[in-house]
Each structure stands twice: as C-alpha cells, then as structure tokens.
Amino acid sequence: MLLPTPRATDGTKGCPGQRGSHGDLTLPSAAVRVPARTLPTPRASDARGQGQHGDGGADLRTTIAGLGQPDTHRWGVYAPAVARWELLLGRPVPEPTQPGRHGKPVLAPPFVEWLMGLNSGHVTDPTLALPRTTALRVLGNGVVPQQAAAALRLLLCPHRWVAPA
Question: Which residues does the annotated region (Disordered) include (predicted)?
Fold first, then answer.
C-alpha cells in the first residue's frame, strides 16, 4: 500500500482532517497520523550489544539496526513501502510533519520530496528560501522522475510492451 499522492493544494489547503473527493485520506491527513520517531539517547550499555533500556524502550544500537526494516508501529500498513523506498533511495525517511504556525503538525516538504524520489534539497534547499506552502505547491505540480522515465520507455519502445496474441 502506498501513501497518498502529493497534490499542489496540500500546501495551501492541506490540513490534518482533509479528505479526498472519495473520502480517502490526503497526504497531509495521512502524514499527521504517523507518530514521530526519535533516536534514543546513547548510553554506556549500548556498547554491550543490542537490547532494551531499563525504561523498556529499544537502545540506540537496536534502533539503528532496525533502520530500513518495516516499522509497523510507526507507519502501520505503509511500513513495507516506506522500508523499500528507504532502501531504493539510500536514505532514511524524513519526518512527515513539522510544527505549523499554531504548533499543530503540518505536512513537511522534505517528506514529500523524499516520497517523489527527488534528491534531498531539490526543492527544500535553504538557499532557495521557499516558504513551506510554495515548496509544497512546486512539489505537487512536479513530476516523479521514475514515472517520467517509465512513460518515456513506453512511448519510445511501444513494441516491447505489446502482449503476444
């Protein structure tokens, strides 16, 4: 199962309660349902191998070892897709939300950039100084490079994709 497709309106009209025309979740509403992930504080016991901290949570080594593995606690039904995309892109998933103007979580542009398979900073580079809503509008109106490449292959080599009779 995949996360909803980013839309240009996610930046200006996107809110945690937003739903699509068929009652489905939009990307902003799906992103705020993902719990925040933080790395545990390093402790001396981390040197002895993977395990649990005294507080019941995983230690730093265990948490790091789990990166790239499906995290069903955090991503739910999206966990296998997120883990595959992390491995394919070669970088971890950024936080899906960031604090908004009023402290409530809003969709984070680096997450959308990651979802689209773009290089980190392609739209969110600080030197571009794009406001969050503008960055989301640019991403929502953008092209996913992998989809564009697949479309070009289909258009340029149609004979390779014809099913035998």
Answer: 1-63
